[in-house]
Amino acid sequence: MKLQLALDRPDLAQALDVVAQVAQYVDSIEAGTPLLIREGIRAVREIRRRYRGRAIVADIKVIDAGEPIAELAFAAGANVVTVLGCASDEVIERVVRSARRYEGSVMADSLSVGNIPERALQLRDLGVASICINRRGLKKQKGAPEDLMKRLVSLVSEIELPVYLAGGIDQTELPMLYDVPLAGVIVGAAIAEASSPAAAARQMRRLLDQRDPQKTHR
């Protein structure tokens, strides 16, 4: 299971400081939407310049235009650009077209998608490579924690795309996700706002490697 660091605070200097402490423990670095809104595509360019060995995700959540927006991110060094899963097929096709020119990929965000497994199948056919589900939406559902976990396992198992889970995930919850067939987790505040980001990221890396004991991390 991969660990994606989400840099959501809209301060590039602070974001770069966090990445400097934790880059060795994460698989990918996400320039979050608030950071991109404040700092622009420069945030992607600066992260890429410093961390050429890491995958860079530009969490633009494209909903309109498609190609021109994705082009800016890929040209700046992003490996992955996000789109909203509820965007039109035409917009998503344009983002995928841009991704292929740069040998990049597209991640869909399930925000506002009603039937996620059904839409995921359509997104896969459009060329989308992965999908992000925000756990906070699931938390709004009623039920005991164990029932919500069963629903999450069932949902992810139905999705025919690699699934990344986001939404307030911290160290204590990672072991609870071992049985969920996830491609990765997206973690923001639990690392970036920890008293020691390096210690938090190192602990998460250790927990994820315990889940995948055959994996040898850097």
Structure in words:
- The longest helix has 15 residues.
- The two termini are 14 Å apart.
- Helix 4 packs parallel to helix 5.
- 39% of the residues are buried.
- 45% of the residues lie in helices and 19% in strands.
- The protein is α/β, with parallel strands linked by helices.
- It has an 8-stranded parallel barrel, surrounded by 7 helices.
- The model has no long low-confidence stretch (mean pLDDT 93).
- The chain has one domain: Aldolase class I (TIM Barrel, Alpha-Beta Barrel), CATH 3.20.20.70.
The proportion of strand residues reads: 15-25%
Could you tell me the CATH topology label.
TIM Barrel
Overall geometric form: globular
Going by CATH, the architecture would be Alpha-Beta Barrel
The CATH superfamily label reads Aldolase class I
Task: Order the strands across the largest sheet as they lie in space.
Answer: 1-2-3-4-5-6-7-8
Count of DSSP strands: 8
User: Distance N terminus to C terminus?
Assistant: 14 Å
Q: Helix and strand succession? A: EHEHHEHEHEHEHHEEHH
Poorly predicted ranges (pLDDT <50, ≥5 residues)? none
Q: In DSSP terms, counting alpha (H) and pi (I) runs of 4 or more, how many helices?
A: 10
Mean pLDDT: 93
- Structural class based on helices, strands and sheet pairing: alpha/beta
Q: What about the largest sheet?
A: 8 strands, parallel, barrel
Q: Taking Cα atoms only, what radius of gyration do you get, to the nearest Å?
A: 17 Å
Level-1 CATH class name: Alpha Beta
What is the helical fraction, as a range of percent?
40-55%
Q: What is the number of independent domains? A: 1
